[in-house]
């Protein structure tokens, strides 16, 4: 399964079960997405945990109000866009996460910087 889609599903399921914390496997892309979620107050906090066998995990402190995360670009169908064609979210509190050559950004920020790239997901 796609690791980013799996992370989105795990967050939605943990919030639906009213968990306060959860752990997921580590990757740099997941950390960048979580940083965006934290900056927009969609999650409370996250931290990196080093396991004894040299592996890493990410522990996430969740908010109790449910968020809806939808994956746009998938491994079977990649979706790319230019800076001028970044879609605007349908709801004012929603946001688009986009992976650019300069890193992971929220859609409005990427549009202001003139960066296009792969549309990762939409958070409502």
Give a topology summary.
Blueprint (H helix, E strand, L loop, with lengths): L2 H14 L4 E5 L2 H12 L3 E8 L5 E7 L6 E3 L8 E2 L13 E6 L2 E4 H7 L3 E7 L1
Antiparallel strand pairs: 1-3, 2-3, 4-8, 5-8, 6-7, 6-8
Short description:
The chain has 124 residues and is α+β, with helices and mostly antiparallel strands. 27% of the residues lie in helices and 34% in strands.
Entry keywords:
Ribosomal Protein S8, Chain: A, domain 1; five-stranded antiparallel β-sheet; 27% helix; 124 residues; 2 domains; globular; 3 helices; three-stranded antiparallel β-sheet; Dna Ligase, domain 1
* Residues in β-strands, percent: 25-35%
| CATH class membership of the largest domain | Alpha Beta
Uncertain segments are none
Helix content: 25-40%
What is the count of distinct domains?
A: 2
**What order do the helices and strands follow?**
HEHEEEEEEHE
Main beta-sheet annotation:
5 strands, antiparallel
- At the fold tier of CATH, the topology name of the largest domain is Ribosomal Protein S8, Chain: A, domain 1
Based on the structure given, which CATH architecture of the largest domain is correct? 2-Layer Sandwich
Radius of gyration: 15 Å
Mean pLDDT: 94
Distance between the termini: 23 Å
The total count of strands amounts to 8
């Amino acid at each position: 399964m796609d690791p980013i889609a799996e992370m989105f599903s795990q967050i939605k399921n943990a919030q639906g079960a009213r968990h306060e914390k959860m752990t997921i496997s580590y990757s740099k892309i997941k950390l960048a997405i979580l940083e965006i979620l934290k900056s927009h107050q969609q999650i409370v906090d996250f931290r990196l945990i080093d396991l004894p066998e040299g592996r890493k995990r990410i522990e996430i402190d969740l908010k109790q109000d449910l968020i809806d995360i939808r994956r746009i670009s998938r491994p079977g169908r990649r979706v790319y866009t230019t800076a001028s064609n970044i879609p605007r979210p349908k709801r004012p509190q929603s946001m688009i996460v986009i992976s650019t050559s300069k890193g992971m950004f929220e859609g409005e920020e990427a549009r202001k910087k003139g960066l296009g790239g792969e549309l990762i997901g939409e958070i409502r």
